[in-house]
Specification:
- The protein is an all-alpha fold.
- The chain has one domain.
- About 2% of the residues have low confidence.
- The longest helix has 32 residues.
- The two termini are 16 Å apart.
- 79% of the residues lie in helices and 0% in strands.
């Protein structure tokens, strides 16, 4: 495949993955009577069950090359990018507030791009600087907007929430880097199969969350509430975990890690869009500035990575 075609296809996969991942932010609003721990357990249990079902007809060729090191790698990726990240993120929101958490987590694109810039043959930081500065400006705008809505309220566990948010940032950064390296190493394995294997391992780990999630919440839910919870968990598992992760893995094989980091911005962009639609309002001036900076930063990064014409 030509470099230009790889670039365009990879960016398309990244945009689609961000659009699907942005739906995750609506789940807490649709199921406010359930805890984030319950949502995580439900989502990843369904993710694991669907992945296991899809893997049954493909198991024999996969089993031929799977080794202990691969399973250990899948456990690490499942913990970093799914279980640990989501639990830390939910805890950060509960203890530190949405504003502080969005400020820390919003630096994911910048951190991943900075890590990717250390790889051999990567674009230099000097050429990435304009894109990184625009990304940082967009994140600062979104965080400032969120801070403006807190009215100066102080949370008693704010420091603990900050530590959880930093932990979530580190967990997803490590996942993005390690997952891209695994995909590059296993060039004989499709991104879809790797995603399904990750789903099976994540589902097994989610089983450990179930008793904790149930014991931590004393709220009594009726049958209709549980059915709604099941529908939301299934929807998130299918659209975000199965389809979204699959598209992300395909993108990770087509784009350099420095550009992969920028693609994470689309999750924030679509999450904002869905939030505006849910709240039935137009974005403010500072939010419009953030969106413009996000898009411009990504376009500049794409331009830097675009192959030169002969």
């Amino acid at each position: 495949m030509e470099d230009r075609a790889r670039l365009g296809l990879g960016i398309g996969f990244g945009i689609a993955a961000g659009a699907l991942w942005g739906l995750v932010f609506l789940a807490p609003e649709l199921a406010r009577d359930f805890t984030a721990l319950q949502l995580a357990a439900g989502r990843y249990l369904v993710y694991g069950l669907i992945s296991a079902g899809l893997l049954v007809p493909r198991w024999r060729p996969l089993h031929a090359w799977l080794e202990g090191s691969h399973w250990r790698g899948l456990v690490g990726l499942s913990l970093l990018g799914n279980i640990l990240y989501y639990v830390l993120l939910a805890s950060a929101v509960q203890w530190g507030g949405v504003a502080m958490t969005s400020l820390v987590i919003g630096f994911l694109p910048v951190v991943v791009t900075l890590v990717g810039s250390r790889a051999a043959g990567a674009i230099s930081l000097r050429r990435l600087a304009p894109s990184l500065w625009l990304s940082a400006m967009a994140i600062a705008c979104i965080a400032w907007q969120a801070m403006a809505g807190t009215q100066g309220q102080t949370h008693p566990h704010r420091l603990l929430g900050l530590l959880c948010a930093i932990g979530a940032l580190a967990a997803w950064t490590a996942y993005a880097v390690v997952n891209a390296r695994w995909l590059a190493r296993l060039d004989h394995v499709s991104a879809h199969d790797w995603n399904l294997l990750t789903g099976v391992v994540t589902g097994a780990l989610a089983l450990l969350l179930v008793p904790v999630a149930l014991l931590a919440d004393a709220t009594t839910h009726d049958t209709s509430a549980w059915l709604r919870f099941l529908a939301i968990s299934t929807g998130i598992a299918v659209f975000a975990s199965i389809l979204g992760n699959g598209l992300w893995n395909r993108m990770s094989r087509l784009l350099p890690l420095t550009l992969v980091g920028q693609m994470i911005l689309f999750e924030t962009l679509f999450a904002l869009l869905y939030g505006f639609l849910w709240e039935r309002r137009l974005p403010t001036a500072i939010e419009c500035l953030a969106v413009v900076a996000l898009v411009t930063g990504v376009l500049l990064c794409v331009r830097v990575h675009r192959p030169h014409a002969a």
